[in-house]
Amino acid sequence: MSTQAITALASRLSPHVSLSKTRLETLCLLIVAMISARTVNLSHLACERAGPVLIASTYRRLQRFFQHVSLPEDWSARLILRLLGLKGAWHLCLDRTNWKIGARDVNILMLAIATPRFRVPLMWTVLDKAGNSNADERIALMRRYLALFGSGSVQILLADREFIGLKWLNFLEASAIPFAIRVKAGLIVSTEDGRKLSLRSRLTKCRAIRKFRATFPAQGDAEALTLTFSAKRIKGGELLIVASNAPDKNGLNAYRRRWSIECLFGDAKTRGLNLEDTRLQIAAKLHLLLAIVALAIAWTNKTASVLTGKGKLPRKTEGHYAKSWFRTGFDEVRRLLRTDPQAALKPWAAIPKRSGVV
Predict the structure, then answer these.
(1) Residue 67 carries which DSSP code?
(2) Domains of the chain (ranges plus CATH)?
Protein backbone atom coordinates (compact mmCIF):
# COMPACT_ATOMS: atom_id res chain seq x y z
CA MET A 1 0.00 0.00 0.00
CA SER A 2 1.41 3.37 -1.00
CA THR A 3 2.53 5.76 1.76
CA GLN A 4 1.78 8.48 -0.79
CA ALA A 5 -1.95 7.82 -0.45
CA ILE A 6 -1.81 7.97 3.35
CA THR A 7 0.15 11.22 3.37
CA ALA A 8 -2.13 12.87 0.82
CA LEU A 9 -5.29 11.79 2.66
CA ALA A 10 -3.88 13.04 5.98
CA SER A 11 -3.22 16.42 4.38
CA ARG A 12 -6.83 16.57 3.18
CA LEU A 13 -8.30 15.59 6.58
CA SER A 14 -6.00 17.61 8.83
CA PRO A 15 -8.17 20.78 8.86
CA HIS A 16 -11.21 18.73 9.86
CA VAL A 17 -10.03 16.15 12.42
CA SER A 18 -8.35 17.23 15.64
CA LEU A 19 -5.57 14.67 15.89
CA SER A 20 -1.79 14.87 16.07
CA LYS A 21 0.13 14.23 12.86
CA THR A 22 1.00 10.67 13.88
CA ARG A 23 -2.53 9.79 14.99
CA LEU A 24 -4.02 11.32 11.83
CA GLU A 25 -1.67 9.27 9.66
CA THR A 26 -2.74 6.15 11.57
CA LEU A 27 -6.40 7.03 10.92
CA CYS A 28 -5.66 7.36 7.21
CA LEU A 29 -3.68 4.11 7.27
CA LEU A 30 -6.76 2.37 8.68
CA ILE A 31 -9.13 3.84 6.08
CA VAL A 32 -6.87 2.94 3.15
CA ALA A 33 -5.84 -0.47 4.49
CA MET A 34 -9.44 -1.57 5.16
CA ILE A 35 -10.30 -1.14 1.51
CA SER A 36 -7.05 -2.59 0.24
CA ALA A 37 -7.16 -5.67 2.51
CA ARG A 38 -10.96 -6.09 2.54
CA THR A 39 -11.07 -6.50 6.31
CA VAL A 40 -11.13 -4.54 9.56
CA ASN A 41 -8.99 -7.08 11.43
CA LEU A 42 -6.00 -5.18 12.81
CA SER A 43 -3.50 -8.01 12.35
CA HIS A 44 -4.30 -8.08 8.61
CA LEU A 45 -4.29 -4.29 8.32
CA ALA A 46 -0.82 -4.17 9.85
CA CYS A 47 0.48 -6.18 6.89
CA GLU A 48 -0.68 -3.46 4.47
CA ARG A 49 1.80 -0.85 5.66
CA ALA A 50 4.62 -0.27 3.18
CA GLY A 51 8.28 0.15 4.08
CA PRO A 52 10.72 -1.63 6.39
CA VAL A 53 8.65 -1.20 9.58
CA LEU A 54 8.00 -4.50 11.35
CA ILE A 55 4.45 -5.84 11.10
CA ALA A 56 4.40 -6.26 14.89
CA SER A 57 5.25 -2.57 15.34
CA THR A 58 2.46 -1.49 13.02
CA TYR A 59 0.02 -3.81 14.76
CA ARG A 60 0.88 -2.28 18.12
CA ARG A 61 0.47 1.20 16.62
CA LEU A 62 -3.06 0.32 15.46
CA GLN A 63 -3.91 -1.11 18.88
CA ARG A 64 -2.71 2.06 20.59
CA PHE A 65 -4.87 4.14 18.25
CA PHE A 66 -8.02 2.43 19.50
CA GLN A 67 -6.79 2.49 23.10
CA HIS A 68 -5.99 6.20 23.30
CA VAL A 69 -7.84 8.14 20.57
CA SER A 70 -11.03 9.83 21.66
CA LEU A 71 -13.03 11.90 19.16
CA PRO A 72 -16.47 13.52 19.50
CA GLU A 73 -19.36 11.08 19.26
CA ASP A 74 -20.45 11.92 15.69
CA TRP A 75 -17.18 13.33 14.38
CA SER A 76 -17.44 11.52 11.04
CA ALA A 77 -21.03 12.52 10.15
CA ARG A 78 -20.26 15.94 8.65
CA LEU A 79 -17.19 14.56 6.86
CA ILE A 80 -19.34 11.88 5.24
CA LEU A 81 -21.84 14.44 3.93
CA ARG A 82 -19.04 16.66 2.64
CA LEU A 83 -17.41 13.71 0.92
CA LEU A 84 -20.67 12.65 -0.73
CA GLY A 85 -21.55 16.24 -1.61
CA LEU A 86 -25.14 15.85 -0.37
CA LYS A 87 -27.34 18.88 0.19
CA GLY A 88 -31.03 19.41 0.85
CA ALA A 89 -33.07 16.51 2.23
CA TRP A 90 -32.50 12.77 1.92
CA HIS A 91 -33.95 9.41 2.88
CA LEU A 92 -32.83 7.97 6.20
CA CYS A 93 -32.99 4.27 7.08
CA LEU A 94 -32.95 2.94 10.63
CA ASP A 95 -32.07 -0.67 11.37
CA ARG A 96 -30.00 -2.91 13.60
CA THR A 97 -27.26 -5.41 12.87
CA ASN A 98 -25.69 -7.88 15.27
CA TRP A 99 -23.15 -10.67 15.45
CA LYS A 100 -21.13 -12.51 18.09
CA ILE A 101 -17.48 -12.35 19.11
CA GLY A 102 -17.12 -15.60 20.99
CA ALA A 103 -19.98 -15.60 23.49
CA ARG A 104 -20.35 -11.80 23.43
CA ASP A 105 -23.06 -10.05 21.43
CA VAL A 106 -22.20 -7.07 19.24
CA ASN A 107 -25.40 -5.12 18.60
CA ILE A 108 -25.43 -1.95 16.49
CA LEU A 109 -28.38 0.43 16.03
CA MET A 110 -27.62 2.30 12.82
CA LEU A 111 -28.97 5.34 10.98
CA ALA A 112 -27.95 5.46 7.32
CA ILE A 113 -28.41 7.72 4.31
CA ALA A 114 -30.03 6.09 1.26
CA THR A 115 -30.10 7.83 -2.13
CA PRO A 116 -30.34 6.34 -5.64
CA ARG A 117 -26.51 6.17 -5.66
CA PHE A 118 -25.40 6.12 -2.03
CA ARG A 119 -26.04 3.88 0.98
CA VAL A 120 -23.75 5.00 3.76
CA PRO A 121 -23.75 4.76 7.58
CA LEU A 122 -24.15 8.15 9.25
CA MET A 123 -24.72 7.60 12.98
CA TRP A 124 -25.02 4.58 15.26
CA THR A 125 -25.31 3.41 18.83
CA VAL A 126 -23.46 0.38 20.17
CA LEU A 127 -26.11 -1.31 22.32
CA ASP A 128 -24.96 -2.95 25.54
CA LYS A 129 -27.37 -5.86 25.16
CA ALA A 130 -28.70 -8.41 22.71
CA GLY A 131 -32.06 -8.04 20.98
CA ASN A 132 -34.21 -5.11 19.93
CA SER A 133 -33.62 -1.46 20.71
CA ASN A 134 -36.12 0.41 22.83
CA ALA A 135 -37.83 3.76 22.26
CA ASP A 136 -35.37 5.69 24.46
CA GLU A 137 -32.37 4.38 22.51
CA ARG A 138 -33.93 5.29 19.17
CA ILE A 139 -34.96 8.72 20.40
CA ALA A 140 -31.45 9.41 21.72
CA LEU A 141 -29.95 8.50 18.34
CA MET A 142 -32.41 10.73 16.45
CA ARG A 143 -31.76 13.64 18.82
CA ARG A 144 -28.07 13.40 18.00
CA TYR A 145 -28.98 13.56 14.32
CA LEU A 146 -31.32 16.52 14.77
CA ALA A 147 -28.68 18.42 16.75
CA LEU A 148 -26.38 18.31 13.72
CA PHE A 149 -28.69 18.46 10.72
CA GLY A 150 -32.23 19.39 11.82
CA SER A 151 -35.53 17.86 10.76
CA GLY A 152 -35.51 19.75 7.45
CA SER A 153 -32.78 17.39 6.19
CA VAL A 154 -35.07 14.36 6.45
CA GLN A 155 -37.10 13.66 3.34
CA ILE A 156 -38.48 10.54 5.02
CA LEU A 157 -37.34 8.05 7.67
CA LEU A 158 -37.74 4.37 6.81
CA ALA A 159 -37.73 1.45 9.25
CA ASP A 160 -38.96 -2.12 9.64
CA ARG A 161 -41.43 -3.69 12.09
CA GLU A 162 -38.97 -3.70 14.97
CA PHE A 163 -39.13 0.10 15.14
CA ILE A 164 -42.65 0.70 16.37
CA GLY A 165 -44.14 1.88 19.65
CA LEU A 166 -46.31 4.87 20.39
CA LYS A 167 -43.68 6.76 22.40
CA TRP A 168 -41.23 6.50 19.48
CA LEU A 169 -43.80 7.43 16.82
CA ASN A 170 -45.03 10.40 18.84
CA PHE A 171 -41.44 11.64 19.12
CA LEU A 172 -41.03 11.52 15.34
CA GLU A 173 -44.33 13.34 14.87
CA ALA A 174 -43.44 16.04 17.43
CA SER A 175 -39.99 16.47 15.83
CA ALA A 176 -41.53 17.02 12.37
CA ILE A 177 -39.75 13.96 10.94
CA PRO A 178 -41.74 12.34 8.10
CA PHE A 179 -41.65 8.56 8.33
CA ALA A 180 -42.83 5.39 6.63
CA ILE A 181 -42.48 2.44 8.98
CA ARG A 182 -43.71 -1.09 8.48
CA VAL A 183 -46.03 -2.24 11.28
CA LYS A 184 -47.25 -5.62 12.46
CA ALA A 185 -50.61 -6.87 11.25
CA GLY A 186 -51.67 -7.70 14.79
CA LEU A 187 -51.53 -4.11 16.09
CA ILE A 188 -54.81 -2.67 17.37
CA VAL A 189 -56.07 0.59 15.83
CA SER A 190 -59.18 2.73 16.05
CA THR A 191 -60.83 3.12 12.66
CA GLU A 192 -62.53 6.27 11.41
CA ASP A 193 -65.94 4.81 12.30
CA GLY A 194 -64.87 4.30 15.93
CA ARG A 195 -64.21 0.55 15.94
CA LYS A 196 -61.13 -0.94 17.63
CA LEU A 197 -59.68 -3.90 15.79
CA SER A 198 -56.39 -5.31 14.55
CA LEU A 199 -54.95 -4.19 11.25
CA ARG A 200 -55.24 -7.79 10.07
CA SER A 201 -58.98 -7.71 10.71
CA ARG A 202 -59.26 -4.32 9.02
CA LEU A 203 -57.60 -5.76 5.94
CA THR A 204 -59.23 -9.19 5.74
CA LYS A 205 -60.49 -8.52 2.24
CA CYS A 206 -57.39 -6.66 1.08
CA ARG A 207 -56.29 -7.86 -2.36
CA ALA A 208 -55.04 -4.74 -4.13
CA ILE A 209 -53.29 -1.75 -2.53
CA ARG A 210 -55.35 -0.20 0.26
CA LYS A 211 -54.86 3.22 1.85
CA PHE A 212 -56.75 4.44 4.92
CA ARG A 213 -56.51 6.52 8.10
CA ALA A 214 -56.55 4.99 11.57
CA THR A 215 -55.42 5.82 15.11
CA PHE A 216 -53.13 4.07 17.53
CA PRO A 217 -54.99 4.34 20.87
CA ALA A 218 -53.24 6.09 23.78
CA GLN A 219 -51.02 3.87 25.93
CA GLY A 220 -49.92 5.04 29.38
CA ASP A 221 -48.19 8.40 28.96
CA ALA A 222 -48.13 8.09 25.15
CA GLU A 223 -50.84 10.06 23.37
CA ALA A 224 -53.02 8.60 20.63
CA LEU A 225 -51.65 9.12 17.12
CA THR A 226 -53.54 9.16 13.83
CA LEU A 227 -51.58 7.98 10.80
CA THR A 228 -52.04 7.04 7.16
CA PHE A 229 -51.75 3.29 6.48
CA SER A 230 -50.91 1.72 3.13
CA ALA A 231 -51.22 -2.04 2.69
CA LYS A 232 -50.93 -4.80 0.12
CA ARG A 233 -50.45 -8.55 0.07
CA ILE A 234 -47.01 -9.80 -0.89
CA LYS A 235 -45.68 -13.20 -1.84
CA GLY A 236 -47.19 -15.93 0.30
CA GLY A 237 -50.24 -13.85 1.17
CA GLU A 238 -48.50 -11.90 3.96
CA LEU A 239 -49.68 -8.35 4.59
CA LEU A 240 -47.21 -5.53 4.06
CA ILE A 241 -48.55 -2.58 6.07
CA VAL A 242 -46.74 0.77 6.23
CA ALA A 243 -47.72 3.53 8.65
CA SER A 244 -46.82 7.12 7.77
CA ASN A 245 -47.36 10.64 9.05
CA ALA A 246 -46.91 11.99 5.51
CA PRO A 247 -50.29 11.40 3.82
CA ASP A 248 -49.15 13.09 0.60
CA LYS A 249 -46.41 10.47 0.07
CA ASN A 250 -46.83 6.95 -1.26
CA GLY A 251 -45.80 4.99 1.82
CA LEU A 252 -45.36 1.66 0.05
CA ASN A 253 -43.16 3.14 -2.66
CA ALA A 254 -41.07 5.05 -0.14
CA TYR A 255 -40.66 1.96 2.02
CA ARG A 256 -39.04 0.04 -0.86
CA ARG A 257 -35.85 2.02 -0.35
CA ARG A 258 -35.53 0.66 3.21
CA TRP A 259 -33.85 -2.40 1.69
CA SER A 260 -30.81 -0.17 1.04
CA ILE A 261 -29.69 -0.52 4.65
CA GLU A 262 -29.82 -4.32 4.40
CA CYS A 263 -27.54 -4.03 1.36
CA LEU A 264 -25.35 -1.63 3.34
CA PHE A 265 -24.84 -4.23 6.04
CA GLY A 266 -23.68 -6.61 3.31
CA ASP A 267 -21.25 -3.94 2.05
CA ALA A 268 -19.81 -3.53 5.54
CA LYS A 269 -19.64 -7.27 6.11
CA THR A 270 -19.16 -10.15 3.66
CA ARG A 271 -19.39 -8.21 0.37
CA GLY A 272 -16.85 -5.61 1.35
CA LEU A 273 -15.01 -4.78 4.56
CA ASN A 274 -15.78 -7.92 6.60
CA LEU A 275 -16.75 -5.95 9.70
CA GLU A 276 -17.38 -9.14 11.65
CA ASP A 277 -13.64 -9.91 11.50
CA THR A 278 -13.02 -7.36 14.26
CA ARG A 279 -11.99 -8.56 17.70
CA LEU A 280 -12.87 -5.20 19.29
CA GLN A 281 -15.59 -5.53 21.93
CA ILE A 282 -15.47 -2.35 24.02
CA ALA A 283 -18.24 0.05 22.94
CA ALA A 284 -15.99 3.12 22.56
CA LYS A 285 -13.55 1.20 20.36
CA LEU A 286 -16.35 -0.25 18.24
CA HIS A 287 -17.84 3.23 17.84
CA LEU A 288 -14.51 4.53 16.53
CA LEU A 289 -14.12 1.54 14.22
CA LEU A 290 -17.60 2.10 12.77
CA ALA A 291 -16.75 5.73 12.00
CA ILE A 292 -13.69 4.60 10.02
CA VAL A 293 -15.74 1.97 8.21
CA ALA A 294 -18.35 4.61 7.37
CA LEU A 295 -15.71 6.88 5.83
CA ALA A 296 -14.32 3.97 3.79
CA ILE A 297 -17.82 3.11 2.49
CA ALA A 298 -18.53 6.76 1.68
CA TRP A 299 -15.25 6.88 -0.27
CA THR A 300 -16.19 3.86 -2.37
CA ASN A 301 -19.69 5.20 -3.07
CA LYS A 302 -18.35 8.59 -4.13
CA THR A 303 -15.73 6.90 -6.33
CA ALA A 304 -18.48 5.02 -8.18
CA SER A 305 -20.36 8.28 -8.70
CA VAL A 306 -17.25 10.06 -10.02
CA LEU A 307 -16.42 7.11 -12.27
CA THR A 308 -19.93 6.93 -13.73
CA GLY A 309 -20.56 10.68 -13.99
CA LYS A 310 -24.11 11.38 -15.12
CA GLY A 311 -24.40 7.90 -16.62
CA LYS A 312 -25.99 4.79 -15.17
CA LEU A 313 -24.58 1.47 -14.08
CA PRO A 314 -25.10 -1.44 -16.51
CA ARG A 315 -27.89 -3.86 -15.66
CA LYS A 316 -28.38 -7.55 -16.30
CA THR A 317 -31.21 -8.82 -18.47
CA GLU A 318 -33.45 -9.36 -15.41
CA GLY A 319 -32.98 -5.71 -14.41
CA HIS A 320 -30.55 -5.98 -11.50
CA TYR A 321 -27.27 -4.07 -11.51
CA ALA A 322 -24.34 -6.08 -12.83
CA LYS A 323 -22.43 -4.46 -9.95
CA SER A 324 -23.80 -2.31 -7.14
CA TRP A 325 -22.66 1.29 -6.71
CA PHE A 326 -20.65 0.16 -3.70
CA ARG A 327 -18.91 -2.69 -5.49
CA THR A 328 -18.21 -0.54 -8.55
CA GLY A 329 -16.45 2.04 -6.39
CA PHE A 330 -14.86 -0.54 -4.11
CA ASP A 331 -13.17 -2.37 -6.98
CA GLU A 332 -12.04 0.91 -8.55
CA VAL A 333 -10.49 2.28 -5.35
CA ARG A 334 -8.62 -0.98 -4.75
CA ARG A 335 -7.29 -0.92 -8.32
CA LEU A 336 -6.20 2.72 -8.12
CA LEU A 337 -4.50 2.30 -4.76
CA ARG A 338 -2.17 -0.15 -6.49
CA THR A 339 -1.70 1.76 -9.72
CA ASP A 340 -2.41 5.48 -9.18
CA PRO A 341 -2.87 6.49 -5.51
CA GLN A 342 -3.42 10.15 -6.33
CA ALA A 343 -6.31 9.27 -8.63
CA ALA A 344 -7.78 7.04 -5.90
CA LEU A 345 -7.98 10.09 -3.63
CA LYS A 346 -9.79 12.28 -6.16
CA PRO A 347 -13.21 11.98 -4.42
CA TRP A 348 -11.75 13.47 -1.24
CA ALA A 349 -11.37 16.77 -3.08
CA ALA A 350 -15.06 17.31 -2.25
CA ILE A 351 -14.02 18.07 1.35
CA PRO A 352 -13.14 21.78 1.59
CA LYS A 353 -9.62 22.74 2.63
CA ARG A 354 -10.86 25.33 5.09
CA SER A 355 -10.90 24.47 8.76
CA GLY A 356 -13.87 22.57 10.10
CA VAL A 357 -12.34 20.61 12.96
CA VAL A 358 -14.44 17.88 14.55
Answers:
(1) H
(2) 3-75+298-350 (no CATH), 80-260 (3.90.350.10)
